[in-house]
Amino acid sequence: MSGTRASTPSQQNPAQKRPVSEVLSEKFTPFDHLTKVVSPFDEETKRDAEFVQKLNTMLLELVLDFHAWSAARPTFESDKTADALEKEMQAFREAEDEQEKTRQRLNDFITRIKLALAALTGLAP
Description:
This protein is mostly helical. Helices cover 76% and strands 0% of the residues. It has 2 helices and no strands. The longest helix has 89 residues, at 33-121. It is rod-shaped and about 155 Å long.
């Protein structure tokens, strides 16, 4: 822009002085506010709107994912707990079966001891 403006007298060489009427009649390039201010502002506004839209989409996806997770969580926890309880009940049943077998063997052993003692002492059962 400095090429379109007239120089101040202190910047000009004394041999190159221009008449005042020429300086006053010279047209200056008008300020292009559309290119310098409005367009960059509009572009920035559009970019901000796109960012807000993208952010809203990301937030919506996050909320939906979180809702899906939280809705499925009780079912998952319930299934997991049910499986754990079933395994624990199976372990109790196996322990009871083993205890029953042990009790039966102990009872058979005691019956044999009684029969052996009766046979040794001559007492009939």
